[in-house]
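User: Structure please.
Assistant: Input sequence and predicted structure:
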Amino acid sequence: MTSSPPDDRGLDEQAVLLVAGLADLAVSTVGSAVEAVRQLLRRSDGPDLARDAQRDLMARGRIALDRHAAAPAHLEVLAQHTKARKKASGGDG
């Protein structure tokens, strides 16, 4: 197979080669992911791993949302805590 500089090829050929390369990369990545899932399913601690993964993903999601969301009003948070304490101790809140 001869290789010529990218400038000598037409844009159509470059696009086809680019798409073919991306498709090959996607197929190999999916194949690796499927094999990893198969190995995880063979483990005896699968449910524990799934539970840990769910906790980790939820924590990452919480961190991501906190990073991009506006910070809560400090006094509002304090008022909510006070109201919750009064309610827990049986007071009118």
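The helical segments are 11-42, 46-68, 74-88.
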